[in-house]
Write a structure and sequence with these properties.
Elements: H1 13-16, E1 29-34, E2 39-44, E3 54-60, E4 65-70, E5 76-81, E6 86-91, E7 96-102, E8 110-115, E9 121-126, E10 131-136, E11 141-147, E12 154-159, E13 165-170, E14 175-184, E15 187-197, E16 203-208, E17 214-219, E18 227-232, E19 237-243, E20 248-253, E21 259-264, E22 269-274, E23 279-284, E24 295-300, E25 306-311, E26 316-321, E27 327-332, E28 340-342, E29 362-364, E30 367-368, E31 372-374, E32 379-383, E33 387-388, E34 392-402, E35 405-406, E36 410-419, E37 423-425, E38 429-432, E39 441-443, E40 446-448, E41 452-455, E42 461-463, E43 475-476, E44 480-483, E45 489-492, E46 495-496, E47 500-503, E48 509-512, E49 515-516, E50 519-523, E51 529-532, E52 538-541
Parallel strand pairs: 4-28, 29-32, 30-33, 31-34, 32-34, 33-35, 34-36, 35-37, 36-38, 36-39, 37-40, 38-41, 39-42, 40-43, 41-44, 42-45, 43-46, 44-47, 45-48, 46-49, 47-50, 48-51, 50-52
Antiparallel strand pairs: 1-2, 2-3, 4-5, 5-6, 6-7, 8-9, 9-10, 10-11, 12-13, 13-14, 14-15, 16-17, 17-18, 18-19, 20-21, 21-22, 22-23, 24-25, 25-26, 26-27
Length: 544
């Protein structure tokens, strides 16, 4: 029975369509296998291309695609086709299938798939026969087949970070097979070194911690014994079990290894486990997800703030914050999405600092000392704890500050920029006289200690968008001034300590949901203006 969905907040494309342009900075994509439509949906989960999360490509693959694994460098995606006994290889730069690899043994039903850390080998679990196939990534051919003693109906596959061990769940016999590389007479091969009995039945998904010390295995029948088993990789024995929801399926870990996410197929929620205590600390979607949505594959965002979950019944990818019980938005994909495995592209390779301390082109997470100028032709991205100790001037090119900090002020008068999320600027931000263009220009989820001025721009700018998953509001320690802009300007959900002044704008202006410490003033704005739900001590002019 279908349930009415009242808790999902679907992002309104009309609010932000066209404002983010086609920026690709730090974009992350989800490759969702759709068993019912024989396709893979490519989802821009951060909304970089269209301004909201959406499917940007649909790729035909083999029959009944099930498992998925993205190569460590993000260049390829491997998809198991359960109904046609093959593996499709997708090139992410073109989103096309470049090779289809047939598996040699008949009656194969490939399910789980994983790639070694160096990207050289792909391990594929057969859901019908008790075997694991190894594919050579260089030649796209099946190079080896491993029989699993005491294994039956293998499904989930996970490789340790050092590439030395492979763990495979065996659903019918309640075990996990451990495969390792061996050498005999100068010949290297893979074989099963041990089989781990589990105290819980029907294991499915599994994941290895970033330090390689533990493996978390989802198991249970949906009627009893629904738990996650924790395997110590030093001894290859079960060290703990953790009760979760009903019929757990997928397992994924945060990048820092502090959290485990488990999709519960029958209880329609996601358990969040603290790896320090091995206890469930939170349940995403508890009591709010439709009763027969059937969450399956899942993965957290790079920073762990969001969780992406494939819903097999409702044909969507759900996006939720990991600190809230309700789901925030959905993206319609193909029929019966499973997405069993690692379906998210990896974060960009980040350098510690620009070579000269002045020229910045590429992503950096180190300290850039002194002032920084970004000019035409540069793509400067300060991310993941990176910082600039002085001022930043953007006179061309592209500047991104995501999860980073600026010790001084930021001034933008050409090029494009993205400030946030999770960015901090100790001084002021001045955005002025931008020429017309379709580039992304936004300040989202950023703390500005000083004032923020958006003045005389002919290019669209958003200061919060009303769609928190795409562009959250900001905290501004001084005033927020929006003056004399001829292009569309959005000002949503900001906390302004001083005054908010939006005057003399000739482009479309939206001022909504802001909390202002002193005075809100909107005067002499000549185009369509939308203003509402603003809170302040005193209001003057056109904004409510």
């Amino acid at each position: 029975m279908k349930h009415r969905i009242s808790v999902l907040c679907v992002i309104a494309a009309s609010v932000i369509s066209g404002l983010l342009g086609s920026a690709q900075s730090l974009a992350q994509y989800a490759y969702i296998t759709n068993q019912g439509s024989d396709t893979v949906s490519v989802v821009d989960v951060q909304g970089k291309q269209r301004g909201y999360p959406d499917v940007i490509a649909t790729i035909p693959v083999g029959h009944m695609p099930y498992g998925v694994a993205v190569a460590p460098d993000g260049s390829k995606v491997y998809v198991t086709n359960e109904g046609s006994g093959s593996v499709s290889v997708i090139a992410t730069n073109s989103n096309t299938v470049t090779s289809t690899i047939p598996l040699r043994i008949s009656l194969q039903h490939p399910r789980g798939v994983a790639v070694t850390p160096d990207g050289s080998k792909i391990f594929v679990a057969d859901g019908n026969l008790g075997i694991v196939s190894i594919i050579d990534a260089a030649t796209n051919t099946e190079s080896f087949t491993i029989g699993l003693p005491f294994g039956d109906s293998p499904e989930g596959v996970a490789v340790t970070p050092d590439g030395k061990k492979v763990y495979v769940t065996n659903g019918r016999v309640n075990t996990v097979s451990v495969i390792a590389e061996k050498t005999h007479d100068n010949v290297t091969y893979y074989d099963v070194i041990t089989t781990i009995p589990l105290p819980v039945p029907e294991p499915r998904g599994l994941a290895v911690t970033p330090d390689g010390r533990r493996v978390y295995v989802a198991a249970g029948t949906g009627e009893q014994h629904d738990k996650v088993a924790v395997i110590d990789t030093l001894t290859d024995v079960v060290a703990a079990t953790i009760p979760v929801g009903s019929l757990p399926q997928g397992v994924a870990l945060s990048r820092d290894g502090s959290r485990v996410f488990v999709s519960n197929y029958l209880s329609n929620n996601v358990s969040v486990i603290d790896t320090a205590t091995n206890k469930v600390i939170f349940t995403v979607g508890n009591g709010t997800y439709p009763g027969d949505a059937k969450p399956f594959g899942l993965a957290p965002s790079w920073d762990g703030s969001l969780i992406y979950v494939a819903s097999e019944t409702y044909n969507w990818l759900s996006i939720a914050r990991t600190d809230r019980q309700s789901y925030e938005t959905i993206v319609r994909v193909g029929s019966q999405p499973v997405a069993f495995g690692n379906f998210l592209t990896p974060p960009p390779i980040v350098l510690s600092a620009p070579p000269t301390g002045r020229v910045c082109s590429g992503p950096f997470d180190g300290t850039i000392s002194g002032n920084l100028t970004v000019s035409a032709g540069q793509d400067c991205r300060v991310v993941n704890g990176g910082q600039v100790t002085g001022n930043v001037t953007v006179s061309g090119g592209n500047f991104v500050l995501s999860g980073g900090a600026v010790g001084g002020s930021v001034s933008v008068n050409a090029g494009s920029f993205t400030l946030g999320p999770a960015a901090t600027i100790d001084g002021d931000v001045q955005i002025e006289n931008l020429p017309p263009g379709d580039a992304s220009n936004s300040v989202c989820g950023t703390t500005v200690q000083g004032s923020l001025q958006v003045d005389g721009n002919a290019a669209a700018v958003q200061i919060g968008s009303g769609a928190p998953l795409v562009c959250a509001g900001n905290k501004i320690g001084g005033d927020l001034v929006v003056d004399g802009n001829s292009a569309k300007t959005l000002v949503f959900d900001n906390q302004v300590t001083g005054a908010l002044q939006a005057n003399n704008n000739t482009g479309v202006l939206d001022v909504v949901g802001n909390t202002v410490g002193t005075t809100l003033q909107c005067q002499n704005n000549t185009m369509l203006i939308m203003g509402g739900n603003n809170t302040t001590r005193q209001k003057t002019g056109q904004c409510d």
